Structure prediction request, 295 residues.
Amino acid sequence: MATFVEAGGTGLLLDPGATLAPSRYQLPPAAEEWEALGRALERIAAWACRADLVFVSHYHEDHFRPDPALYAGRRVWLKDPRRMVEGVQARRARELWRTLEGRATLRPADGALERAAGVVLEASPPLAHGLEGTTLGYLTALTVTEPGERERFVFAADVQGPLSPVVAAWLERQRPTLVYLAGPPSYVEHEVGPAAIDRAIDHLLRLVERTGCRVIMDHHAVRDPRAPERFARLWETGRVVTAAGWLGLPERPLEARRAQLWGRARRPAARVAAPPRAMIRPRPVRGRAKGGFAE
Prediction:
């Protein structure tokens, strides 16, 4: 979900991390996923060079990287490592904070507020990473307001839907014009139950109806091969799109297609006889397309 935002002359890099699920659908990452990860990490490093402020919502490894170069010399808002952070996330938080001390200007993000010329930054209190009381911990969301443009962007990271009615109410109070969040985790529907996923869909529909906002829904939602059908009620609003859809790029949910990627990799290559030498023509030179892909 790594995101770069420009508002009021300030460059914001949000959740500068990317990784691969070591096992999904009982398979390890396919070669295409490793290649996509490499491209993603290169892009994150490049955008970091343009950032004035780096924001980390929580300490799952797909939302931050411990590389000091991403943060050095910048203002950094980090989920408060002393507040509603436990277990492995707490250890990662302490390690990152120690690594960056003296290299960046650090601030606990929870509840932080900054008003500057042209932009207002407001971080949330701790919000549930999914259902209330979840063992996945809590995160901090960020609202970026550009008054001159009448835009309010909310980066809500892994609220998973939102599954929590508390988080749903907080999002509605922000009166966003655009929200980016991880959608309902239907790829683990057998664990949380269909009712929880349906409630999350209802929460998001209510947010769109009451605020008129647009929603970029990605991350957890697109891990499910059934996402086009499971979230049809959301797509049909015309207000909810994936990150790729927002950027006008082809949909490439590689993790959801992991079984197909491995099936293709294991299929023997077709043997094609080489054409007679007289028939071989020079390969045309193709221009390289600009831009990137959304993974």
In short: Residues 31-48 form the longest helix (18 residues). The two ends are 9 Å apart (CA to CA). Residues 268-295 have pLDDT under 50 and may be disordered. The longest strand covers residues 151-157.
